[in-house]
Design brief:
Blueprint lengths: L3 E6 L6 H14 L4 E4 L2 E3 L3 E3 L5 E3 H10 L10 E7 L2 E6 L2 E7 L8 H17 L2 E5 L17 H7 L3 E6 L5 H11 L2 H4 L2 E9 L3 H15 L3 E6 L25 H7 L3 E6 L4 E2 L5 H5 L3 E6 L2 H6 L2 E4 L1 E2 L2 H10 L2 H10 L4 E4 L1 H5 L3 E4 L9 E4 L6 E12 L2 E4 L2 E4 L2 E9 L7 E3 L2 E4 L2 E4 L8 H15 L12 H19 L2 H7 L5
Parallel strand pairs: 1-9, 1-10, 2-9, 3-6, 10-11, 11-12, 13-15, 13-16, 16-18, 18-27, 19-21
Antiparallel strand pairs: 4-5, 6-7, 7-8, 14-17, 19-20, 21-24, 22-23, 25-26, 26-27
Length: 497
């Protein structure tokens, strides 16, 4: 048996990513060399490692929690949905082709083999590997081709703990039903339960926990409380619990200092790397709202067009919903607009996909015309971790894109903005993650506030974004130590003492 653990869940968003991150930080604080792992991640939120490999954003953060260097083996298969029936495949950090819906059960044997090899590689270099499952292990219609849940557990002989979200209700039925739907060989790997997001009197829950243990023959390894103000870079676009819905980062300190700065983030159907705006939302006095409402876009102090996995179709959607008109009106009035990656590409005069990278056939369409650029899509994906500066502030970032923007030669009234351009109050860049650079974020928002006539000022004494992430990871580890049976978990992972 490999020294490790598989953290499965009764549903998507049950808390697998958070529990995995908490376990990684708890083990790292004990001096254990631990690596996170997810055999297959389906997400448009990704990150570029130092060696240029692309992995899921959640696994990158889990590596930070583990105090390990993020690498492709931690997320060997990344599926990036391009439509409801097609996903782009990233294998060991590099583009590998596409997977159609009809190939879901049969077309993944090579992916499974690479995933198992990646796990074994990590297991040979780390003391423990904490693997995160995907969705539910009881997706019985997909079991034959599964290599991320019980298929992984069987292949590398991992014990499994199942996390259930009690805040949604029905957690006991979900746990019991998960076990009941598995065959006997899969059931043998399920070793315990973790209840997540509990609020209230634990005494009232105890009878149910005892009945669950009696009926399943597996122990409840702990009950984690609902942790407020804890977020984790999400696999699901714009579903970050710490701030989605607006105002997650404003706090009393920001309101005491002056007016709140409002930011509207357009919710594209195929939004990607939406974690770019986490740092904006974490800034005191900044209220971030995710929206598809033209009136909200029109009224905000800053509107953000985030990244997207389908620039052309999401641009068409922007026009159909009346959002494009709201963005154009803002720009005409000199009110701030920011485009990031796909959102930046939409600001161009022309978008050309002659290689049919995003489209079913070659096509050229007009952009919003707010920046004098021409975007061209190429088959080769550009990946990197660039560094730069703006207004004297250092910026670190990462880039993941097929489209490149070229400035029209005779263009006037433009100035550099990171790797992109600004004209008036319109800014565009392909760089993701730039707003995690505290000085740059605060300088940019100060300029936005001045243009918007809002009396917002940055709270320079407030913790920076990286410090907030570290504090969050330590809070998760504290919760693991306080509320879970760490002795039992350590024994499951093959650790002594």
């Amino acid at each position: 048996m490999a020294r490790g653990l598989l953290v499965a869940g009764t549903t998507s968003d049950a808390g697998k990513s958070l529990v995995t991150a908490g376990l990684c930080r708890w083990l790292a604080r004990r001096g254990v060399r631990v690596a996170p792992f997810k055999a297959q991640n389906m997400s448009n939120n990704s990150m570029v490692c130092a060696d240029g490999a692309e992995i899921g954003r959640a696994q990158w953060v889990q590596a930070v929690a583990a105090r390990a260097v993020p690498e492709a083996a931690m997320n060997p298969v990344l599926l990036k949905p391009g439509s409801d029936r097609r996903s782009h495949v990233v294998l060991m950090g590099r583009p590998f082709g596409e997977l159609q819906a009809g190939e879901w059960a049969t077309g993944r044997k090579v992916l499974a083999q690479k995933a198992f090899e990646a796990f074994e590689d990590l297991a040979s270099r780390y003391d423990v590997v904490v693997a995160e499952g995907a969705g539910s292990p009881a997706e019985i219609n997909l079991r034959e081709g599964d290599y991320v849940n019980m298929g992984l557990a069987r292949a590398v002989d991992l014990p499994v703990v199942v996390v259930g979200d009690i805040d949604r209700g029905g957690v006991f039925a979900a746990m019991y039903g998960t076990l009941a739907l598995l065959d006997e060989a899969d059931q043998a790997h399920v070793r315990g339960w973790v209840v997540n997001k509990f609020r209230g009197d634990l005494g009232l829950l105890q009878p149910g926990l005892r009945m669950l243990e009696d009926r399943t023959g597996r122990p409840v390894l702990g009950v984690l409380p609902f942790l407020h103000d804890v977020w984790l870079d999400s696999e699901d676009a714009l579903a970050i619990a710490g701030w989605s819905g607006g105002g997650g980062g404003a706090g009393d300190a920001g309101r005491a200092a002056g007016a709140t700065l409002s930011v509207a983030v357009v919710r594209f159907p195929r939004v990607s790397n939406a974690t770019d705006v986490d740092a904006l939302a974490a800034e005191p006095g900044v209220d971030v709202r995710v929206t598809a409402d033209p009136d909200v876009v029109a009224g905000a102090d800053l509107v953000v067009l985030p990244g997207t996995r389908a620039t052309l179709s999401d641009l068409a959607w922007l026009r159909e919903r009346g959002l494009a008109d709201a963005v154009l009106a803002r720009a005409a009035a000199g009110r701030p607009v920011l485009g990031i990656c796909g959102g930046y590409q939409m600001l161009a005069e022309v978008i050309e996909d002659c290689a049919a990278v995003e489209s079913a056939s070659t096509t050229t369409v007009p952009g919003l015309g707010l920046l004098p650029t021409r975007v061209t899509f190429a088959p080769e994906k550009l990946l990197g971790t660039p560094r730069g500066e703006w207004r004297g502030q250092e910026v670190t970032a990462y880039e993941i894109h097929h489209g490149s923007a070229t400035l029209r030669p005779e263009a006037a009234g433009v100035s550099p903005f990171l790797d992109g351009w600004s004209r008036g109050a319109v800014h565009g860049t392909t760089w993701h993650g730039a707003f995690e650079s505290d000085g740059f974020r605060r300088a940019f928002l100060t300029e936005v506030a001045q243009r918007a006539g809002v009396a917002w000022v940055p709270q320079t004494a407030a913790p920076g974004f990286a410090a907030r992430r570290e504090a969050m990871l330590d809070r998760l580890a504290d919760a693991v130590e306080e509320h879970l049976d760490t002795a039992a978990l350590g024994a499951l992972m093959g650790l002594d003492g």
